[in-house]
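Sat 14:20. Reprocessing the chain from the morning session after the first attempt stalled halfway. Input below, unchanged.
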Amino acid sequence: MIIQNVNSTQFTSNTSITGNNNQVTANTTTTGALSSIDNTITGGNNVINIQQADTGKQNLVLTTNGDFNSITTQQQGSNNNTINVNTDGNNNTITVRSTNSGSINNPMTAIAR
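Finished this time. Tokens:
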């Protein structure tokens, strides 16, 4: 299990995971610069929850290779938000929510499949 709760002016995270039944939770808040998350996950039955928020630019690259993965990503920011999700496998669930103003109402959480 990886949990990241970050509040900063700039944040970059690169994570690579191989295996099954992992959980990744990231909640980042940036003010004015960049929140960049790049995750590569190989395996099945993984749960990924990523939320990026505030006035900085939000960038997410997520690559999964495996079956029955659950992915939820939520971005809120007034600058250019970028979401790039690539999956290879069967029975994966992906939920993407993005807004360029205000906060994310009723945030969602990925549920293990």
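The mean pLDDT is 82.
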